[in-house]
Specification:
The protein has helices at 4-14, 17-20, 83-91, 96-105, 114-131, and strands spanning 25-32, 36-42, 46-53, 58-65, 80-82. By secondary structure, the chain is of the alpha+beta class. A hairpin with a 3-residue loop joins strand 2 and strand 3. Helix 1 (4-14) packs parallel to helix 5 (114-131) and helix 3 packs across helix 5.
Length: 136
């Protein structure tokens, strides 16, 4: 279990590349008791949602492709892109050198618990996916 504020701070730290490299802005932080947390970043075309269900220990990173500035239907698999799906596509394209350089970027972070390790793993995958996003 992780506290909401602790989760939000970890996301802001590990996913800061969304703002500094890719031009996203943090637009939403949600804390529903101790059960569900979500942080959303947005650019002109996409929303990245990093959500965690504390009780089920379930982390989900989703890239939503905006339609006329609005979120698509969650079940629209062409506009609601789960990181696991994106990662499979990108890993086939990324070079070993690129994967290693991406991993080096994250060496500066020291996760202190299991959820932070999960967040960091997903952050690494997301950064690599966004670098190849227009090729997918």
């Amino acid at each position: 279990m992780i506290e909401g504020k602790e989760y939000i701070e970890a996301v802001k730290l590990f996913y800061s590349f969304l703002e500094t490299e890719f031009g996203f802005n943090k637009v939403n932080e949600t804390i529903n008791g101790n059960a569900f947390y979500d942080v959303e970043f947005k650019d002109k075309e996409r929303v990245v949602s990093i959500s965690y269900e504390n009780i089920d220990d379930h982390l989900e990173v989703i890239v939503f492709m905006l339609q006329n500035g609005k979120l698509p239907d969650y079940d629209d698999k062409t506009k609601t892109l789960h990181l696991k799906q994106l990662n499979r596509l990108v890993m086939a394209k990324a070079s070993k050198e690129e994967i290693n350089l991406n991993a080096e970027y994250f060496v500066k972070y020291n996760p202190s618990n299991e959820i932070e390790r999960k967040l960091l793993k997903e952050a690494k995958e997301l950064r690599l996916c966004l670098k190849h996003f227009n090729e997918l």
